[in-house]
Write a structure and sequence with these properties.
By secondary structure, the protein is α/β, with parallel strands linked by helices. Helix content is 23%, strand content 25%. It is built from 9 helices and 24 strands. The strands form 8 sheets. It has a 5-stranded parallel sheet with strand order 5-2-1-13-24, with helices on one face. Strands 15-22-16-17-18 form a 5-stranded parallel sheet. Helix 1 packs across helix 2 and helix 5 packs parallel to helix 6. 46% of the residues are buried. The ferredoxin:CoB-CoM heterodisulfide reductase is composed of three subunits; HdrA, HdrB and HdrC. Part of a complex that catalyzes the reversible reduction of CoM-S-S-CoB to the thiol-coenzymes H-S-CoM (coenzyme M) and H-S-CoB (coenzyme B). InterPro entries: 4Fe4S_Fe-S-bd, 4Fe4S_Fe_S_CS, FAD/NAD-bd_sf, HdrA-like. GO terms for molecular function: 4 iron, 4 sulfur cluster binding; metal ion binding; oxidoreductase activity.
Length: 428
């Protein structure tokens, strides 16, 4: 039973699977989306080096796709895990792709001819995709998926596919798999706080109030605007932008009195990207505390200031429309005691991390502990942060707590080593 199951195909799951597989142990990587990559695949740059996110991630994705010891199962969800360390049975539901995976080459002819467009989840809802699609250009596996919910069965994709790889609804179905494993790594990541719960910021009420992830897709050259910054209300290039920090973090009014760890740094990164692409654009960050705690992070903060980013200590009241097509944010600068009415063409809400609901469901079914914020609880945060109260089941990445990418990779390595030791012990 030389297997380990890794649940979640983000950067933590990818790193964990790769580390385990390199110990000559077979890994099943379970991902519920059509492609692995997780949130990191949606980002433009990473702090503090401003390296291209996909330039770091896509080689890892390609490597595990051809690793002889890794089986990738996409569009799959873990239903239950039974047994004990060294002898787990993992029940997985595999949802249909409506594509013959052995025949599809990912050429995209079917995508081009499809007449149906719907909002694209990968583009955070500000872009569109077809009813048959690839999430992004570097998708792994490099094959399309047919969205049967929105497909109108016009038949155009059947005719254009030279490999006859597109399947009809009756030719594919949900399957249930049972996988034997010696250990399990949970790397299910996080989701983002819903800013509609902070109604004073006007998210969805004003089209020019967007989330940080929507901005990431907009500034990304592979995103819906090809990297061009636009106001959603009129398509014009914004001349002034305001970032609002701690939306859904450190906020008792929404029961989120936890710091999301990455918001300060990704706001600084995005602010610098704006100044790099649009030097004349006025960029302000409204914050309560700047938490630049990592290696090179304080220097990164100073770079942002030197680039012309205004850092204002104070969080705004209601975001208002001034009736002239601009947004107004009343705020008190708590360092100078000055009251300001900032006018902005675009407001970006730095939303925090919250637990992935799938993680909460899985934890309850497995009897794993959850902390007060509904993240997974480790066996011992000081001495065994990757372990759980159930031997043989380990935590990697942001399933445990908000983490940045380097911390996710580091925790993935720790979980992978513990899972590998369980496999070795079970074979003795």
């Amino acid at each position: 039973m030389n297997n380990v199951v890794v649940i979640g195909g983000g950067v933590a799951g990818i790193q964990s699977a790769m580390d385990i597989a390199n110990h000559n142990i077979h890994v099943y990587l379970i991902e519920r989306e059509p492609s692995i990559g997780g949130h990191m695949a949606m980002l433009d740059k990473t702090f503090p080096t401003n390296d291209c996110s996909m330039c770091i991630l896509s080689p890892k994705m390609a490597e595990i796709s051809r690793h002889p010891n890794i089986t990738i199962l996409t569009l799959a969800e873990v239903e239950k895990i039974e047994g004990e360390v060294g002898n787990f049975t993992v029940t997985v539901t595999q949802y249909p792709r409506y594509i013959n995976e052995k025949e599809c080459t990912g050429c995209g002819d079917c995508v081009l001819i499809c007449p149906i467009e719907v909002y694209n989840k990968f583009d955070a809802g500000i872009g569109v995709r077809k009813a048959i699609y690839k999430p992004h250009a570097q998708s792994i596996p490099n094959i399309v998926v047919k969205d049967n919910l929105h497909c109108i069965e016009c038949g155009l994709c059947y005719g254009v596919c030279g490999k006859d790889a597109v399947l009809k609804v009756t030719e594919d179905r949900v399957e249930t798999l049972e996988i034997s494993a010696s250990a399990v790594v949970i790397a299910t990541g996080y989701t983002l706080f819903d800013p509609q719960k902070k109604s004073q910021f006007g998210y969805l009420r004003y089209p020019d109030v967007i989330t940080s992830l929507e901005f990431e897709r907009m500034i990304n050259a592979g995103g819906p605007t090809a990297g061009n910054l636009r106001r959603l209300s009129n398509g014009e290039t914004p001349k002034s932008i305001v970032f609002v920090q701690c939306v859904g973090s450190r906020d008792l009014t929404v029961k989120r009195n936890i710091c999301s760890c990455v918001c300060c740094m990704y706001a600084l990164k995005n602010a610098m990207l704006i100044k790099e692409h649009y030097p004349d654009c006025e960029v302000s960050i409204l914050y309560s505390d700047i938490r630049a705690y990592g290696k090179g992070y304080e220097e990164y903060y100073e770079r942002a200031i030197n680039a012309g980013v205004k850092i204002i200590r104070g969080l705004p009241g209601d975001v208002q429309d001034n009736g002239k097509g601009r947004l107004v944010l009343p705020v008190e600068n708590t360092e100078t005691r000055e009251f300001l009415n900032l006018e902005a063409d675009l407001v970006i809400l730095s939303v925090g991390m919250i637990p992935e609901p799938e993680t909460v469901r899985l934890a309850k079914s497995l009897g794993l502990g959850l902390d007060e914020h509904q993240f997974l609880s480790s066996a011992d945060m000081k001495l065994d942060s990757s372990g759980t109260m159930r031997p043989g089941i380990y935590i990697a990445g942001a399933a445990l707590a908000p983490k940045d990418i380097p911390d996710c990779v580091m925790s993935a390595g720790a979980a992978a080593m513990k899972a590998s030791i369980d496999v070795i012990r079970s074979e003795q």
